[in-house]
Write a structure and sequence with these properties.
alpha/beta, 287 residues, 30% helix, globular, 13 strands, nine-stranded mixed sheet, 25% strand
């Protein structure tokens, strides 16, 4: 019998009309990539969608605790900045902060993509800001930390995920650890919490390559993204082999996490040969 996985998607934006007409809204994109990633896994995924921007919709708290209606909350990307104090953003941060406490902490898992990654970090005590290194836009090689390899059960050195961001998480929230990095540009690219409630990624695995191409062209033409940088990234997108992204693989790992199959032990060890300490609580580089 397949495991039933019931997810709430917090919809934090509406795609540009050029994307919306061709590829649909965020509910369509997330349902599609999660469906592809679930293929071959023993799971059936159902969704409910909540407009947290205009309607400021949220699940009933009873459905997140005693009723156990939802196994997880997925927070989408947005063109908004997670560090601003717009009323809907403050309400979202407050709600996520509330979810980080009991009884919800061990009832509902949280997954954040791009803006959602930053919101979870902010709500948990981290710091978000505009990245002084500028835009990270296009298909980007993201390097897994040693902990990232352990948590994701892989020997991959890197994963290739589409990026559309100029904001980032500057400081780790208390009780969180870095799973991936593009340091020195964006040191903190993916997070996991000690309590196994939260996992995040700065990228957009829900975006097809052409979505990124459309967005990059629009922002270049509007003068938002520097022309030389945009043209270089567009040229790279055109040269990349088809299906060279790790989007489906990564979302599969997110599904494993939501099912409770991607837990890890928050334990440090000492290498018997070198005597060096290693583990998630040993601070190395940007972790």
């Amino acid at each position: 019998m397949k495991q039933q996985l019931s997810l709430a998607l917090f919809v934090c934006d509406t795609p540009r009309p050029q994307v919306l007409d061709k590829y649909g809204d965020y509910p369509t994109m997330f349902a599609e990539i999660f469906s592809k990633a679930a293929s071959g896994r023993n799971v059936d995924i159902t969704w409910q969608f909540f407009d947290v921007v205009h309607k400021q919709e949220y699940p009933d708290l009873r459905d997140l605790a005693e009723n156990k209606t939802f196994d997880g909350i997925v927070i989408s990307g947005s063109a908004a900045s997670a560090y601003t104090d717009e009323p809907w953003i403050l309400k979202l941060v407050e709600f996520v902060h509330f979810m980080r406490a009991e009884p919800y902490r061990h009832q509902v898992r949280l997954v954040g993509f791009c803006f959602g990654h930053q919101i979870i970090a902010r709500a948990s005590g981290g710091h978000c800001e505009k990245n002084p290194n500028g835009w990270e836009f296009g298909l980007v090689d993201i390097f897994l930390t040693p902990l990232g390899k352990e948590v994701l059960h892989t020997e991959k050195a890197l994963v290739r995920i589409h990026q559309v961001h100029q904001d980032h998480v500057r400081d780790l929230p208390p009780g969180f650890h870095s799973l991936a990095t593009t340091a020195p540009h964006t040191p903190i690219h993916s997070l996991i919490s000690d309590d196994n409630q939260c996992i995040t990624i700065q990228g957009h695995p829900e975006f097809k390559r052409d979505v990124v191409r459309i967005l990059l062209t629009l922002r270049r033409d509007a003068g938002i993204v520097p022309t030389d940088y945009a043209n270089k990234q567009l040229e790279r997108l055109d040269k990349e082999q088809e299906d060279d992204e790790d989007d489906q693989w990564l979302v599969g790992k997110m599904i494993d996490f939501l099912q409770g199959n991607l837990t890890w032990k928050n334990v440090d060890t000492v290498d018997a040969m070198t005597g060096m300490a290693c583990g998630p609580n040993v601070k190395i580089g940007n972790d």
